[in-house]
Amino acid sequence: xxxxxxxxKRGLANRRQVLGDAWVDRSVSSANTLNVDxxxxxxxxxxxxxxxxxGLDRRTRRVMVLAITASxxxxxEFELHVRTGLSAPPDQPESAxxxxxxxxxxxxxxxxxxxxxxxxxxxxxxxxxxxxLGLELAPADFHHP
Length: 145
What we know:
about 140 residues; single chain; about 0% strand
């Protein structure tokens, strides 16, 4: 498979901005003769050709990834985007930052369109990641909205 080196470089830069250096470094360092072409392909096609398109901002793309991965039960990818979205600097839109209020709305949408079990699992993943990141989830009174 022949991919443009420029496309792979742009994709790698986008991937680093959205997922962070640590995740990308782990992924790239695990390249081997079996998966290297696959890694280059997703870096070029997904992270350059799709994530570089002007039609949607990165935050919207990340929200779409969350909805799709939850709908498909791809919880490892869902968790990756929850974690990196919550960890992204809010003042850097190219990092596709998320906040808990946005995730709450995404989870409500997922529950309606992908089913309550998907919304329930997604909620559990978001709560786990939020706690791991030290984000406060204040108690709320169920009986008084």
